[in-house]
Amino acid sequence: MNSLVDLQALIRQPSISANNQGLAECANILIKIMRKAGIHSSLLYLDKKVPPLIYGEVKSKKKPTGATIMFYNHYDVQPVEPVSRWNQNPFSGNIKDGKIFGRGASDDKGELITRIKAVEYILKEKGDLPCNIKFFIEGEEEIGSPHIKTYLQELKHNLGCDVIIWEFGYVDSKFRPIINLGMKGMLYVEVTAFGPLIELHSSLAALVKNPAWNIIKVLNSIWDDHYAKILVKDWYNEVRSLTKEEVSFMASQPLFDEVEFKEKYKIKQFLRGVRGNEVKHVLTDMPTCNISGIVAGYNQEGAKTVIPSFARVKIDFRLVPNMNPKLQFVRLKQHLLTKGFQDIQVKYIHGVAASRTPFFHPIVKVIKDAAERVFGGRSIINLSSAGSGPMSIMTEAVRAPCVATGCTSLFANIHSFNEFAKIDLLSKGTKYMIEIIEAVSKYSIPRF
Amino acid sequence: MNSLVDLQALIRQPSISANNQGLAECANILIKIMRKAGIHSSLLYLDKKVPPLIYGEVKSKKKPTGATIMFYNHYDVQPVEPVSRWNQNPFSGNIKDGKIFGRGASDDKGELITRIKAVEYILKEKGDLPCNIKFFIEGEEEIGSPHIKTYLQELKHNLGCDVIIWEFGYVDSKFRPIINLGMKGMLYVEVTAFGPLIELHSSLAALVKNPAWNIIKVLNSIWDDHYAKILVKDWYNEVRSLTKEEVSFMASQPLFDEVEFKEKYKIKQFLRGVRGNEVKHVLTDMPTCNISGIVAGYNQEGAKTVIPSFARVKIDFRLVPNMNPKLQFVRLKQHLLTKGFQDIQVKYIHGVAASRTPFFHPIVKVIKDAAERVFGGRSIINLSSAGSGPMSIMTEAVRAPCVATGCTSLFANIHSFNEFAKIDLLSKGTKYMIEIIEAVSKYSIPRF
Questions:
Q1: CA B362 to chain centre
Q2: Which of B63, B64, B299, B353 has its CA 20 to 30 A from that of A100?
């Protein structure tokens, strides 16, 4: 079925939502691949400035009123900087040592192709699907899905389904699929501090406020010295703590492989010395405050002595259930005001609430059993991924449980340089999606 | 004499010491200009990797044992980033509205050309100089003059002089020359914090230390919240405070023009609310801690969510008399050790001690009077510039007083984009240097 050739075609078309590069082009390649697979697909445009959404559908001829799976995926990718760190062109799609390389190879073009190919395979084999399938594929996931609500509104009569299979899932190095039942929320902000109109000679540092120092003091006021607590007033007010049942369910799942992970990334120890069960706990349920980027002044080789005219930081706050990104943003602004910081601008880049599907929802066992049949061992179920995405927007609009699972290697360098997908896992992932389609078709539906 | 054509030729040859660009080429253009002016000049090479030094000399035929002036200048320039902010090519040398534009137009190629042309003018007019002149022109001033000591050692038998005229001096918007009798010292360091081996997805921020956060906490521990005090233990131990006589001399000089400066650079108020005489005081004598550059992670458009693999900051500490840059560096390293910061590297980029020529040295009045004759009004004498340079290295090697004066407009954007020199000031500067040569030739020399 030429799965790899199709994946290469997708990877070779850059589709970076952060700078609006190649999105419509990528959507057009994708829709051809989907139509070739037998999926009835259409491109939806809000307007020319917004990347199109792809909606795809296959009705089961035999059981048109049976179960329906919706696949949520995205065709946009993260930026590729720093380009110099890639061992090859970031959009090469080259295959080497059983891996296919390039931005999007795993996140999310690789995962998406397994789903399309699963449908194509069953249709080719049997001429029909055992259940209904829907594809909802957006082009703005990596920038916080600013138009997903509008697209969902447009498609509101097509959204009925019994389960959403989320865009991705990891497989660890023991080939255990990691199934996530939720995602953290996110508040992404940009804080800019302004200094003199133009960069000044730093001999004036005794007189003129340096915006980089301003940003340092701003940041220092937000996150405590132990990287444990966000110091913004009322930040944790609405946080819903884990229930006893959730805690003991979490404890029943395998541990995170700390040794392997630390060795891989040359990390001596985890923050605050967390280990064992605590690792799962913080990944699942700890609000964080991360500096994704900071820049001011001169950063080339050698010495230059200046007072920069501005300093800018990009901060991503991960949120847990019941935290509202817009409310947290108001609190952050209030915090900076109260602390008396001046000449700064705080910009809301995007935000989304956390999502959780209850671990005791019966569909969870259906997926888990499918995973264990295909991967031949135990799966790992997380109450929530440590990552974020518009899952809560989807589950609210669609009113269905959502399970995030797939075939991405835990060390696939997603969002980093030299991203790849393991070809054996892509193949396993396709089988897994076929198994999920079969299993869900036998599932008797409790509507929640 | 084609002063502007020669200056254009110098500007159009990039000579950036920070990245070792075009230095020998610039030295070769310069030495031709000097020889054409009648200055006996030679290029000294330490080795091929070090930018050459230019030593020039003109003996007075009439008074070969009379007074000697040494001009200290440099032919290297600061980097030009951010290039996009320049209104024209940073090396254009274009003339517009009475200004000549380009990196180095003022600092220091413009100043240097006035000195060469002053000598050329007198030689052309009179066939002789009234006193002896030496030129010591290096190519590494903007990176902390790492080889100046070696060059001084090489030239130790040629260094005798009665006064060093330092590379530059400002002229304020009331056409008052600002004469500096010293410079602050400097310790320039680069601190790098290391994180995971490669950039990681920021969903792991609950577990993995972010090097940008590490740098924030490092910086926060160094400079207090009021930007008044460096928090490193024993930082101020050796500081020699101003004497009563220096304080009252300082008070006798005109105030810094705060209103004009603030308006020009859109600054609401100075740090810590300083004003009036305090402004001169901090510029002259306050040790500072400035962030010249900071960078980590993703800084392009839009949102990317990563834990950077490293974060780096460039800090310039200005030092005052009796502080030793190497000792301060040891203290800084000890501070970071004591505070328990881990996974950081502290690099000594360059350092130099402060320098002061006593305000009561008789040569000061000789220069000041010359300035007031040429500029036709009152001059301003500062005990020290707020800037730094290898003045203390020169004065120690040469054992002569040093006066920094010249014709750079206070708003000439040196070290910033759109650097320029005002052509009327270049012309006035040349006359001023002629006047200095005449005045020093009449000066009876007290050797200190």
A1: 25
A2: B299
Same domain? B14 vs B147: yes
* β-strand partners of B420: B101
Residue B410: list chain A partners with CB under 8 A: none
| Element holding A298 (H helix, E strand) | none
B80 and B19 Cβ atoms separated by less than 8 Å: no
A134 lies in a domain? yes
Helices (H), A306-390: 325-338, 362-375
Alpha-carbon span A198 to B266, nearest angstrom: 9
Rounded Cα distance between A45 and A53, Å, is 7
Q: Which long-range CB contacts under 8 A does B255-259 form with residues at least 24 apart?
A: B255/B279, B255/B280, B256/B280, B256/B283, B257/B172, B257/B173, B257/B174
Residue B189, token pair as written in the block? 């360091």
**Chain A interface disruption, residue of B168, B291, B299, B342, most A CBs within 10 A:** B291
**Mean pLDDT score across all residues of chain B:** 95
**Tokens of residue A5, six digits:** 């050739």
Instruction: Output DSSP code: residue B377.
Output: S
pLDDT at B173: 86
Backbone torsions φ then ψ of A314, nearest 5 degrees: -110, 120
Tell me the per-residue pLDDT of A380-436, one tens digit each, with 9 for 90 and over.
Answer: 999 999 999 999 999 999 999 999 999 999 889 998 899 999 999 999 999 999 999
Q: How close B387 comes to chain A (CA, Å)? A: 5
**Cβ-contact A91, A12 below 8 angstroms:** yes
What CATH number did the domain enclosing A321 receive? 3.30.70.360
> Which of B352, B380, B399 corresponds to the end of one domain?
B352
Q: Which element (helix H / strand E) includes B250?
A: helix B244-252
Q: How far is B203 from chain A (nearest CA, A)?
A: 5
For residues A340 and A202, membership in a common domain is answered with yes
pLDDT in tens, B247-283: 999 999 999 889 999 998 999 999 999 999 999 999 9
Q: Has residue A446 got a pLDDT over 70?
A: no
**Mean pLDDT, all residues of chain A:** 95
Q: Tell the burial category of B413 from Cβ atoms under 10 Å away from its Cβ (0-12, 13-18, 19+).
A: buried
Please name which of A380, A428, A407, A369 lies closest in space to residue A168, comparing C-alpha atoms: A407
Note whether A267 contacts B292, CB cutoff 8 Å: no
pLDDT for residue A173: 86
The answer to whether the CB of A238 falls within 8 A of the CB of A322 is: yes
Cα(A436)–Cα(A121) distance, rounded to whole angstroms? 13
Question: How many structural domains are present in chain B?
Answer: 2
Out of A305, A320, A352, pick the residue that ends a domain.
Answer: A352
Alpha carbons A129 and A59: distance in angstroms, whole number = 7
Q: Report CA torsion sign: A242, A243, A244, A247.
A: negative
Q: How many residues are recorded in chain A? A: 448
Q: Measured between beta carbons, which residues in chain B are less than 8 angstroms from residue A90?
A: none
The answer to whether residues B227 and B272 touch, using CB atoms and an 8 Å cutoff, is yes
| pLDDT over threshold 70, residue B448 | no
Non-local (6+) Cβ contacts of A150 within 8 A are A46
CA-CA distance, A256 to A161, in Å (whole number)? 32
Q: Stretch B299-311: mean pLDDT, rounded?
A: 91
How many residue contacts between A and B have a Cβ separation below 8 Å? 295
ipTM: 0.87
In chain A, residues 250-269 whose CB comes closer than 8 Å to chain B: 264-268
Alpha helices in B323-361 (DSSP H): 325-338
Query: What's the pTM?
Result: 0.87
Do A416 and A312 share a structural domain?
no
DSSP element (H, E) containing B310: strand B310-319
Domain ranges, residue B121: 3-183+355-441
Q: Are B42 and B54 in contact (CB under 8 A)?
A: yes
Count CA atoms within 13 Å of residue B185 on its CB side: 25
CB neighbour list of residue B377: distance below 8 Å, 6 or more residues apart: B174, B175, B176
On whether both A436 and A332 belong to a single domain, the answer is no
Query: How high is the pLDDT of residue A392?
Result: 96
